[in-house]
Amino acid sequence: MHLKLGETSTIVVSSPKIAKEVLKTSDPTFAARPGTLALEIISYNHAAISFSPHNDYWRQMRRICIIELLSAKQVKSFGSIRNDEVLNLVKSIRSSAGKPINLTEKIISTMSATTCRVAFGKGGFDLADLFPSSTMLKTLSWNKLKLLAMRRKLDEILDDQTGDSKRKGNGEFGNEDLVDVFLRIKESGELQFPIDNDKIKAVISEMFSAGTESSSSTINWTMAELMRNPSVMAKAQAEARETFNRQKTTDTQNLKYLKLVIKETLRLHSPLPLIPRASREDCEVNGYFIPANAKVFVNTWEIERDPKYWTNPESFQPERFENNPIDLTGNNFEYLPFGSGRRICPGLTFGLTGVELPLAQLLYNFNWKLPEGISLDNLNMIENSGMTASRKEDLYLFADPFPNDFSS
């Protein structure tokens, strides 16, 4: 689909075939991001990895993110933080037994606290109250003065945190929070493009909003889908309880069915329903001329519901991924929850790890019921409009503590 929005050509791609051409075959041509004044202000003049132009600075920052900030080893080193915060979540829900809880709020609070400790090595404030990605994306229509005011407030918080951070270890993984890692790299003097505080703040705030909003949204959508599909809920709970009781740990590696549940949630509720790209030069796609600087949006929401590629696409069926080679790495163009190509989400491992443990503990420790007056058929599943696809309404549920052999 071609739209002319003012003087800008906008292309919407809604088929896996054309998505592959844009995201793989012509990936270098479409490796740019569309720019807006709002993103320029919020991302510290496009210093954030997601919003940076495709250039040598972007390559450097992406490499730092993949190798230093969010490598599998580094993500694993944050395990004790995740465990602590999920334990706090379980305790909070237990204390509210017998009355409906706002699960959405509790999940956001947990993910916010986790990301805060990962980034700064300590809690003590909730940056998500100021700068969740859902709020940020709604501000794309705000005027410049409001955006600058929000940036100044963000600066106050991040300047305090990045200025206060001291090296806690000797540079080995496991002894550093994310700001420590940045400061170590900054002090090394080995970078082609030196890192200043604005660049650190851009990446940290980007990771905070993504780590909080995207992960909490996925958890909330998963719980909503499980409430609408009791047989899937029962199977996922049985797996979590049997596995944790047997292995006497809360390691989620062996929760195979839960991983299928998450994949199915990401199919129906992709964190990024429209993947934004921009053409860096004149080119041709599927026989059509695309001018330089055209905006291109890959419509993953439509692709991941296309009956040509998915049987009963509107049904929640985790088993569709069983013995199925389709994965999350962006190589299957009918399934792109984290994007594909050069611009695939660099925090994929961090995000998935942050989703699995809270979900597993929610399933392990509680039986769940809908509030009075809400049934499987009328549970509101409407999405927010915008670049992210979180639930429009908060999810309220009753949690009935389940007696387990292995205490979380």
Automatic annotation (TrEMBL):
One Pfam family matching this protein: p450
Signal peptide: none
Alphabetical keyword list: Heme, Iron, Metal-binding, Monooxygenase, Oxidoreductase, Signal-anchor, Transmembrane
Top-level taxon of the source organism: Eukaryota
Compartmental location: Membrane
UniProt KW Oxidoreductase keyword: yes
Membrane topology classification: Single-pass type II membrane protein
InterPro entries in the record: CYP450_71D (IPR052306), Cyt_P450 (IPR001128), Cyt_P450_CS (IPR017972), Cyt_P450_E_grp-I (IPR002401), Cyt_P450_sf (IPR036396)
Residues given in the record as heme binding sites: C345
GO cellular component terms, A-Z: membrane
Gene Ontology MF: a single term: heme binding
Listed PANTHER family: CYTOCHROME P450 71D8 (PTHR47953:SF16), OS08G0105600 PROTEIN (PTHR47953)
UniProt name for this protein: Premnaspirodiene oxygenase-like
